[in-house]
Description:
By secondary structure, the chain is of the alpha+beta class. Helices cover 40% and strands 13% of the residues. A hairpin with a 2-residue loop joins β5 and β6.
Amino acid sequence: MIARGDTMGVFYIESPATRQLQRKARVGDYPHLVIHSSIIRPASNRYINEYVRRLHGKPYSPLHPLLEGLLEESYGIMVYQEDVTKAAMAVAGFDAIEGDGLRKTLTKKRAEKKLREYRERFWAGALERGASPGQIDAIWEMMMSFAGYSFCKPHSASYAKVSYQSAYLRAHYPAEFLAAVISNGGGFYSTFAYISEARRLGLAILGPDANASELAYAGKGRELRIGLQQLQGARRESLEALLRERERGPYRSLEDLLARVALPLSDLKILLRTGALDALEPGLNRPQLMWKLLQRHREAGREPVLAWPEEGAWIPALDDYPEAQKIQDELETLGLIYRFHPLRLYEEALGRLDLVPACELARHVGRRVRTVGWLITGKVVSTKRGEAMEFMSFEDETGIYETTFFPDSFRRNAPRLNARQPFLLTGEVADELGAISLNVAQASPVERAVAASSLPAFGFGAGLLGGNGQAATLE
């Protein structure tokens, strides 16, 4: 699982960059995960692919004979902070205090002056020991990849241990694991994205229920139950009161709930619209439930909205809400659709297009293809020329796939991209050492395809951003 990069939700190794590194490395053992936890830092990007090539057998020589054996476990690449200290001592004759001083200076901001002084001493010491200018430049440049932040090996090892523990839970208790991830605010992704991952893992997603839901998400076996914390706009004190009273026994009916716990009508309406009250009155649909609620609910001594003089509520014969209304209610009260992936809403229109699903992109390397995807996270970076570009992760029902928007594409497409709707993406499939991605040339909203068909359009607004009221991470 770790070697495949199937680590969404796993501590520290769920980011797109780390999952792609795992796919390139194709190893999931603990010693290599310790290396990966440290090497996956922005300043070391240029060394990651060389590390992977050496991992897979590419011959290499140390940058200087004096480094022989010092970096053997990481294939001649400096990975940990202490590698800087050891290299400075071996190549330039630094003592331990001076070498550690260089290591500390690399982690500080505005340390240019001090680094220039260290560079002069490093060059002088290395020349004395027979290093060539080219060797000295290469070693110093690798040391500079530790500028900003980096890990020492014990730090990386401790992180990798927690990663392994959480990976074990994901592998053997996926429902319980993802419930805990979502309930604690998630990691790199939104609740929407984690629920999609749960669905891809074959878990049944169960909606909120006044008798079955806890405040937090809950997982058991092959089921993931949405927690009442997901309800948008409901007062937390109301939800807590509902759960406290339930400790005395389950609610037998809507009337039993109303008699046992005093909740504002506005919160009860939210519960009803999410479907959390459905099981209390199995013979009634939601319009009938709303009718009964408005007849029986009393708040602050006032008469019910639909006061009925006779004992017992009168429920007229009413048609259930249409499916589109229930979907809209889910979006407004939960902030997401949980019963199915929202791409299903476009199924008929998308079925007319020649699309490659995420799970089959590897079969199309080097070809120009079209995909559909929902944006779940992204990161804007700058090229060496200072131009903006972005790495984005999209998902469809079959998986998550990574995309690259190079500067020209970024300028054309970035203004229209968002996490509120699906997009059609056209580009070339790339394979970098086993990590598949799509270099996007064109992105357009799926709504255009729907508009061109006879299907109704669904306006999602900001609803599908997901996660406990939080949006996907779009840096």
